[in-house]
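Handout, page 2. Input:
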Amino acid sequence: MEDDGTLGSLNISVDKENRYFNCPEINQQRLLNTSFWIINYIDGVKTKFGNDRSLVLIKYKLDDADNESRKFFTNSREIKYILQRVKEMDKFPRRVTMRASGNRYYIE
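Output:
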C-alpha cells in the first residue's frame, strides 16, 4: 500500500499488551438472574481492585446487529474457570445466566 499520509497506510499492528473492549461497562450485580451471550473475554487484567481479573464481553441478543455489547470485570474463580474451559473448546459465543450465592458469582 502506498503511503498517503494516513495512519491506515502505515499498517501498524494492534498492541497485543493493550487489550480492551470498546463498549459500556456493567457490573455483575446488575446482571444477576439475567441471561446473555458471552462473546469473548480477556484474562489477566490488572485493575484498581487487584490483579488477574477477567474482562468479559457480552451481548443480550446474539443475532441483533443493533444490540450494543457490554463488558464486566470479574474475579470469580468459578466464572474464570468456565471461561477458560469454553475458550479451550473454542465454543464462544455461549448463552449463560448470571447467578450469585452470597457474594459468590457464577454462571450457568
